[in-house]
Amino acid sequence: MNVSLYQAAAAMNAHARVQDLIAQNLALAGVPAARRMETSFESVPAGFASGAPWAPGNRFYIPRVSVGTNFSQGEITPSDSPTDLAIEGPAFFEVQLPDGTPAYTRRGQFQVDAQGYLVTYQGLRVMGNNGPIQVDPKLADSITITPEGQVVQGQEVRGQLRLVEFDNPHALRSLPGGLFLAEDPALVPRQAAQSRVIQRARESSNISPLHEMASLLTTLRLFEASQRVLQAQDERMGRTIAELGNPG
């Protein structure tokens, strides 16, 4: 078994995966509150040499790429809309999916629908401590939201935004549209204690296009290096076969 061929091919697959994620990051760089996808490499056992008994020397390793989400704070910029909200701190807004499942987002680009519910740009209802936040749609411009997340319209308190934090947000599953699911039973949302809401503001993505372009060039060079290793090993095997097949 030519281990170098498998290792080079696995490295090419891993670097191709990284290139796809960099392209995804670049596409999301201008999306409010988008989160950067990060990659890391590790060596994992590929198995045993074919037909050989177990022994330390029979095991070989191949590179594998792992993907995670960077939850660092994005830049907060002013907005003219009273329903544009940003979070300073690690908390998430809780929203409700169409099937009733709770989801979490940092993208506070909200609006008031015809029924007066505060909804995301996708139309998902924003949750409060006692259910969806509902206001008078005719007076949408008079909404005031305190740093603690209390929603006030005129002199009436309409609800309290449900802001939650997680001990390990990296275990959240990412969904399209800047949403996250807490599918792991160990992920229990708790009331935010280290965060505050900023009204008339938006959080930018934490993705730097310049950094992504530099990473893309580096990954491309590594892909090409692995490709050269694979080609060299293939040529070496070809010469070996030709020489063994023609002993004269």
From TrEMBL:
List membrane-spanning regions.
none
Give the protein family: Belongs to the flagella basal body rod proteins family.
Q: Name one GO biological process term.
A: bacterial-type flagellum-dependent swarming motility
What organism is the protein native to?
Limisphaera ngatamarikiensis
PANTHER family found in the cross-reference section: FLAGELLAR BASAL-BODY ROD PROTEIN FLGG, FLAGELLAR PROTEIN
Q: Where in the cell is it found?
A: Bacterial flagellum basal body
- Cellular component annotations (GO), alphabetically ordered: bacterial-type flagellum basal body
**Where does the Flagellar hook protein FlgE/F/G-like D1 domain start and stop, copy by copy?**
86-152
The cross-references to Pfam families, in alphabetical order and at most eight, read:
Flg_bbr_C, LlgE_F_G_D1
Name the InterPro entries on file.
Flagellar_FlgE/F/G (IPR020013), Flg_bb/hook_C_dom (IPR010930), FlgE/F/G-like (IPR037925), LlgE_F_G-like_D1 (IPR053967)
Major subcellular site:
other
| Superkingdom, taxonomy of origin | Bacteria
Q: What broad taxonomic lineage does this protein's source fall under? A: Bacteria, Pseudomonadati, Verrucomicrobiota, Verrucomicrobiia, Limisphaerales
Query: What protein name applies here?
Result: Flagellar hook basal-body protein
What keywords appear on the UniProt entry?
Bacterial flagellum, Cell projection, Cilium, Flagellum
- Per UniProt, residues of the Flagellar basal-body/hook protein C-terminal domain are 201-241
Tell me which stretches of the chain form a coiled coil. none
